[in-house]
Here is the input.
Amino acid sequence: MSGPLKGCRVIELAHIMAGPVCGLMLADMGADVIKVEKAEGDDTRRFVPPKINGESAAFMMLNRNKRGIVLDLKSEQGKQALRRLVKGADVLIENYRKGTMERLGLGYDTLAKDNPGLIFAEISGFGRTGPYADRGGFDLIAQGMSGLMSVTGEAPGRPPVKIGPPISDITAGILGAMGIAAAYAERLKTGRGQRVDTSLFEAAITQTYWQSAIALATGVSPGPMGSAHPLNAPYQAFRTADGWINIGAANQANWEKLVTLIEAEALGRDPRFATNADRMQHRHALEEALNAILRHKTTAEWLALFEKGGLPAGPVLSITEMHQDPQTLARDMVPELDHPVAGRIRTIGLPVKFSETPGGIRRPAPLLGQHTREVLAEIGYGRDEIDAMLQSGAAMQCQMEGPTS
Here is the structure.
């Protein structure tokens, strides 16, 4: 592996999404991430369809660049193996309910005695403190309680709408990785580890910066506005002759540029649209006026005109269209790699580029228990000891021969 986190060892005791996204980010940046699974595997292995040659596409997306082992953490042998593994690690990620790690005898206070420099990252539904600390968490619940679903959708009075992707899960994973990187930087200076605690709830709240700014200033909660912006206009999707186009005329200069490019100088002279505050006050009238003009050309025609004129604009792409977009490909955001069962697959790339220590996607998601024997040997277990653990069920290895790196 290469990348800015090369040499950092991470133990991932996480399942489904938020924790695995955290591990994925660290692995893509060069960390050696060892994913510890239960005998039946991460539940995401059963998030199907779709499958590729029998392998879950969802699991392969979130767990590339990791090595995978299986330990029974309810067995004494499994616990001892994990403690030995953590003793030589830099980071542990877990996203169990509060108290689970302590009940297993694997809480921070216990593990930090063996490894005072350990960074112990906890990603939960609501955080480890507060009245909701004991609750489990799901993206849908976090989106609703954070206020996100109250501002997502077409208009007030319509049913609440969830943001399509599990945004609180993904954001919590990214925040967890950010917190780990900060704690790792501190440890390099002081030698001290620490706990890092974030949650789906807080991750969703961070997505409300603009709406919270409005509510905190006025005492009034904003509602859903479709694709429009709560503070700038015009900044939304408009209909064209054959589809939709997003236009970002979010400041006065771009507004004046827009009316010139669409040959609608009368709109520029209309007092209802003179300033951004005026345009926000009369946003619906502005939307109707612009839609009436923009429907006369195709999306491609408008995009060519706006690009030439320097106005920010873009198409509304489907996911597959995004995968094929030349900018997506130029930024290596849909790399290919070989999986021992699924064959040649595509995934989503690392969204942060480093000039001197590039990260990247180098390893497919592990088969269940693919690296158990390899990792146990690395931490000092002999062949006979590993065989005994496998026979007792304290550990499990993949039954299929495949590459281990």
